[in-house]
Amino acid sequence: MDNLKVTYEQEFESVVEYHENGNVWYTGQFLNDEAHGLWEIYHYNGNLWYKGYFNHGQEIGLWEWYDEDGENLIQELYV
Fold it and tell me: Residue of 7, 52, 54, 70 with fewest CB within 10 Å of its CB?
């Protein structure tokens, strides 16, 4: 067993996509090709549309949605 070597390959990839007008459309991260960590999606006008966390592709925690003027519309808790 002294020769046993264990390695873990984890690859994070940050992503940012943009609307045609140049405003950010969404930001987030992938871990081994699965959504992982905070994701934020924006309306065309640049205001936040919704945000929440992923854990290996599954929604977790509090997610929040906003209208185009930035007013909070909905909150949903994923467990």
Answer: 7
